[in-house]
Amino acid sequence: MRAVTFQAPGEVRVEERPEPRLTSPEEAIVRVETSGICGSDLHIYHGRVKMERGFTLGHEFVGTVVEAGSAVSEVAVGDRVLGCFCTACGRCFFCRHGDYHKCDHGRVFGHGKTLGDLQGAQAELVLVPHANLTLRRVPAGMPDEVALFAGDVMGTGYHAIVDANLVPGETVCVIGLGPVGLCAVQAAKVCGAAHVFAVDRVPERLALAERFGARAIDLEKEDPREPVRAATGGRGADVVVEAVGHPEALDLAIRLARKAGRVSGIGVYAERVQVHMGLVWIKALSLRTGFANVVGHLDRVIALLESGRLDPRPLVTHHLSLNEAPEGYAIYDRREALKVVLKP
Hints:
By secondary structure, the chain is of the alpha/beta class.
């Protein structure tokens, strides 16, 4: 089968790889009909996240089940399904407490040995462990490019808001308007935020945030602290979402949050960074970070996508074939694309 593989920083390649085989009764094999290139794939592409040469990339997928183990009961051969970016066993301490993203046996698709040694989904076929939790049937009539977002990007944007315990009527500020940040803007509106501020430097992304109902702030032209404080009686935002994964963005999030506010750090970090703990401490901020609990949120996110209240379609800027994936990575890296969707 064809698969997109990591070769070196700045280099990916479409190669022939062995077809996956079931190794457990809880596994399924999915014929991938749609996959995506994600911002976290770029961290691998840049060499920021360690990856073995020849490893298959990708963790977003929609497709059809072509084989299922004897213990798989929630989906069946022939079902059109979507996948989560990570797997969960459903039985360990963390799964029993609803923290599926911290499953003791969890693995992340397409992220090498460091995160579970699970080959990715930018391929013609993908092996899916713990298929009863990792997969969901796609509602009839839902387009692939909408379903694709449920198991990662929209699930992560939604997680950023609900994990920060947003109360209807509060103010949210989102820093970084890649696909996850823009999904967080949508989720904040759906979850009842009275005001949503959206911070970035890219005019097209700022325009999309405005289309979704946010007040856009161009960092090249405006200090975001002024409009955020003006809208909140000088306090700052109740919830700040840091969707960049950079120390400067985290520092800005800490400064934009009100006293006793919440910072939701969903940008990817793979190295040590300095945090102004004195400011975090004196403001009594709550800081939530890490993978999104997409398995835990999945059914609600799918329902909101099906209703149209969450709509990621405006984020998709490029449709490419699997063979064109190397160019898709290059386009994304140059910030000429917002979301790249791959078809076999």
